[in-house]
Amino acid sequence: MDIGDPIKTAVEEIGKVLNIKNVVGEPIETDDFTLIPITKMGMGFGVGMGKGKDERGKGAGASGGAGIEPIAMVMISKDVLGNDGVKIMSFKTPDLLTRAISEIGNAAVKIMDKDQEMIKEIYMKKIAKKREANELKK
Questions:
Q1: Radius of gyration of the chain (CA)
Q2: Using CA atoms, how far apart are residues 49 and 53, in angstroms rounded to an integer?
Q3: Measuring CA to CA, which residue among 98, 85, 118 is closest to residue 126?
Q4: Of 69, 62, 67, which Cα lies nearest the Cα of 48?
Q5: Comparing C-alpha atoms, which of 79, 44, 37, 77 is closest to residue 62?
């Protein structure tokens, strides 16, 4: 028995599951909207082969598993054209780490804005002092 046989079979079966239609669902039409479901897919597999001392002690196998989770819905309005007519409704609430990273990012932007204001203020004061010094020399 060749180790390639169970691997080939496992990869062929996974190939059947790995399809964009399993991640971006078929559009659903309503009177006002076109709804497109979006999912997250995860999978894993393993293969193995073993051989004992004689012919009776050999074997091979493969196994796998997959999971699919709805994460969002794209809502396209039939009445509103352009970007304003497209909304994404997330089904996931951000976990603690995602929220923390987002808050840190927001805080960093605020700090950089304040730093820029302080640098501008210092620069303006230096310019004012130079002008004042120049006026006194005259």
A1: 31
A2: 14
A3: 118
A4: 62
A5: 44
- Residue 57 tokens read as 């002690």
Give the integer Cα–Cα distance in Å for 48 and 10: 11
Q: Which residues contact 33 (CB under 8 A, 6 or more apart)?
A: 75, 76, 77, 78
**Sheet strands (E) in 4-107:** 28-29, 33-51, 58-77, 86-90
Scored b (16 or more CB within 10 A) or e, 73-108 reads bbbeeeeeeeeeeeeeeeeeeeeeeeeeeeeeeeee
**At 105, which amino acid appears?**
G
Is the model's pTM score more than 0.70?
A: no
Q: Are 41 and 68 in contact (CB under 8 A)?
A: yes
Q: How far apart are CA 17 and CA 67, in angstroms?
A: 10
Q: Per residue in 19-72, pLDDT tens?
A: 777 788 889 999 999 999 988 888 777 777 778 777 777 777 777 777 788 888
Structural domain boundaries of the chain?
1-92, 94-138
